[in-house]
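Hi W.,

Here's what went into the run:
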Amino acid sequence: MKQLETAIRKSANRRSFLKNSLAASAATVGVGLLSNGLSALGADHDREITEGDAAILRFLAAAEILETDLWQQYTELAGQDAPNSGYKTGLIQLDGDMPQYISDNTDDEMSHELFINAYLKSKGAKTVDLERFRTLEGSEVTEIPGIDGKKRLTNLMELSVDTSWWTRYRSDNQNPDFGDTFPNAVPTLAMGKFTAIPRNNTELEFGSTNVPVHTHVQAIANTAGFHFAFIEQGGTSLYASVAQRVSSVEVLRIVLSIGGTEIMHFQTWHDKAGNAIPLTDGALVFPDLTADIPQPETLQSNLIMPEPTIFLSKKFPVCSIIRPTATKGVAMGAVKALTADGLFIGQTPDFFEFLRDLAEEADEARREI
Ligand SMILES: [Fe+2]
Ligand SMILES: [Fe+2]
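Here's what came out:
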């Protein structure tokens, strides 16, 4: 009987606890809905952030500034507002919505950059500015005004695009966090230096009536298609990896919420890259990834959902996950991957030093409770 009474009391307490916490959360939502100032951010916003959190956010801000710069170049040449051209048509061959997606991805990166810097500032922390490194020449296309002569932070004209993310996400028994490496889906694209944007008017032009896009121009569009996914799979892993070392719940919220959109971007581009038109343009060969047979599962274009694979330990069942997510040295790893991509060809030693310092500080950050 006593046991029963205790059980009833416990359940009553549990109910009132639930009632109180529901009321509390309703109140929090109410505050969020009613106010539009900083009070909507909740109590956690008033706290200082650790040096480690600031360092992680600064590295992410730099990455976002660089992303914005490269996405802006794609938008100017093939975004929603760009005039029709052979290059834009080449991208539309991958999907009719490509120009819209390109413009939107650009807007997203810009919002990430501005948000993270504004948040750092609100915490009295140093922000990131890369404008002094805006020294690179970009495309010399003159048929679209405002492109030729504009200085850039990133170089999209000498890329060696790693396409191993394609096979990595299709593997059911390997994971880069276990030291595994993966073959490229488009091996030639990783071996040379290729442009992902038209460098001049010729590379922008339409083809003939019978062939709307020249093979070379289509090759440039295909390169861009794979580069989009390469960039965004990097963001996908970067955010998931640094999240494990942030201290403040609010900074964790920022990292998870922005990181989630990197995942959405990657998934979209992953799907579109599979539609790249099969072709040979000099040393560059795009295989037909949509071919039914003979196509191993590691190449099959419609397998865009992350294949369950080994995670944490082989003693666990396989799991569908982002990969890699190991956190050690991840910021420096991102710098190395972007450098190997060719994105910084032509940048100054000062640029590399600045970026490496930001990465080192972010990698030193440890979770403090
Ligand atoms: Fe971003
Ligand atoms: Fe991104």
